[in-house]
Amino acid sequence: MAGSFWANEITASGIIAGSLSSAIDANNVGIYNVVYYGADPTGGSSSVAAIQDANNAAAASTAGTGIVYFPAGSYLITADVNPSSGTFWLGPEATLSSDVGSGHNLLSNGSALSNLTISGLTLDLKDNGASAINFPAAGSTDITIENVTIKNGNSIDVAAVNIGEGSDSSFTSGHCERIRITNCAFVSVACEVTKDIIDLSSCDDSIISGCSFVGCTCNYCIGLIIYCNGVIVADCVFDGNSSELLIFGGQNMSMTGCYVSGTADHVGSQISNADTVNITGNTFTGISNSTAWIQFDVNTNIYGLPVQFSNSNVISFQGNLFVAYSKGIYVASETGSGYNTSPTNVIVRSNVFNGITTPIDYQNATSGSLVFEGNRSFNPVGYIASQTLSGTVTNPYPFTVQATVSGGSGVTNITLSMNGTSHATGLTSGTFILPVGAQISASYTTAPTVYWFGL
Length: 455
Hints:
This protein is mainly beta. It folds into 2 domains: 7-373, Pectate Lyase C-like, CATH 2.160.20; 382-454, Jelly Rolls. Helices cover 4% and strands 50% of the residues. The chain has 2 helices and 43 strands.
């Protein structure tokens, strides 16, 4: 035997020790070389049966995770191949070349999977309508897809990579768990109407990190759609055209260190039906076909927004860079099917808006739980609006403003209320600073007018 190479010397990060090409031997415990089972690394004939046989042997292995090893080469795939639980597919210099066509997948399994890793392979979809990976069953756990390149895709029937139940509304039950898609490249992958590049539905506690989406296009579909809880998206590059580049729905989610570019017919990054989301340190740049970067709870006929919030609660959006849009943030308080009148507990702080005509447009949105602070290239300076100071009036804006009270008759006292504490000023007119949520009232015969000014 030419060397010794055991399954426990390979991890989800790659080879720990030894020379894989010289150490692999069909007789090594736990390592199953697809060529030994009859796969053709020249691509001249179908390798489906041989790969399936190697996978089945690996799945039956008693030596831990069975390694399905692909030597360097190109392997023709003419029918769906079904990876099994407890297998580790490894092929850092191998390509699976699709010849399966629309309605099929290179790799698929309709049953729940666990402890499956696919590492280093290139999946060439050949623009024939096939998907790359389709694991649609509920209950899958611990699936890792790492250092995989998916290219030349034209997915028609399902997402290029689909893991989970495949239903946008099902993220509250029947979860998959711990799906890892790391350091993968999606190159020239296209999806047709209502299909996506990556679709994770009900896949809790999952990570998408270090991935690049370059030259990918979508037609009325989504680049990345996540209806899950506890998902992290980090250090990814999204550069392409899509109806929507990113959609998040669920709880306890974060997006950090990503670069999002390209056109979007609807929104670039949409956060919908979400609770406790942190969006920090990302760059959003490019040209949209419509209005703004962040959209809060608006009617469904408003499109073209890099980030949209709807039916959402506890959103922190901090330290991001926005470049070259007509509007940066649009908060509207409109209602429509599936929308609330306003999100709650939203903080937009310390973002930079560069080359944006209207960085924040708050329209008629309620401000009690919206806070905009320290955003560069945003602050309405000077006169904004006026209203009658009838009864108690709350600062109607999601930022600190100056309120000037004048006019009316019989005005005897102006009272300010902040954080539950009231302070009677004894003044009949004057100028006051009101932070978010602060209130102002007066005693009067005829109500005075309050004039709002941006600082």
